[in-house]
């Protein structure tokens, strides 16, 4: 991608956009603003291709950090309510790529119960509800 390789960029987008979008929506609680913020993230990635800072982060952690920073910047710029709350632990682990089994072990749930909880939270992200509301509904 460092040489402007569009195919490599497309592969990166395909592999990462779902997780980055979910993070943006979870922070901003507004799908159109989150999509705009994500567009800015990918424009930055394209313009800085090959120059990932020496932060010690894995490439995915770097992308998640860029997305979080852009979402918080947009939150301030748009005057959106919210604060610098810590992400939900399950959501954070999923965004980092943890397996279903690892999530279930961490939360003391069975794999099927964890799958149901994740489905509820993903549905909430698609529907604009807070993931915590979905988790409460799935726990019942």
From TrEMBL:
Highest rank taxon of the organism? Bacteria
Which is an annotated Pfam family here? Sigma70_r2
RNA polymerase sigma-70 region domain span: 12-78
Q: State the Gene Ontology BP annotations.
A: DNA-templated transcription initiation
**Entry keywords, A to Z:** Sigma factor, Transcription, Transcription regulation
GO terms of molecular function: sigma factor activity
Matching entries from PANTHER family are given as:
RNA POLYMERASE ECF-TYPE SIGMA FACTO, RNA POLYMERASE SIGMA FACTOR SIGZ
**What's the protein name?**
RNA polymerase sigma-70 region 2 domain-containing protein
Organism in which the protein naturally occurs: Paracoccus siganidrum
């Amino acid at each position: 991608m460092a040489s402007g390789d569009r195919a490599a960029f497309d592969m990166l987008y395909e592999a990462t956009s779902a997780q980055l979008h979910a993070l943006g929506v979870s922070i901003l609680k507004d799908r159109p603003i989150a999509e705009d913020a994500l567009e800015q993230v990918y424009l930055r990635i394209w313009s800085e291709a090959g120059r990932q800072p020496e932060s010690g982060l894995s490439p995915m952690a770097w992308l998640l950090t860029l997305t979080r920073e852009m979402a918080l910047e947009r939150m301030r710029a748009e005057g959106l309510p919210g604060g610098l709350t810590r992400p939900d632990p399950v959501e954070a682990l999923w965004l980092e790529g943890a397996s279903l089994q690892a999530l279930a072990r961490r939360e003391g749930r069975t794999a099927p119960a964890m799958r149901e909880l994740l489905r509820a939270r993903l549905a909430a992200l698609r529907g604009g509800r807070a993931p915590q509301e979905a988790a409460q509904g799935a726990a019942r």
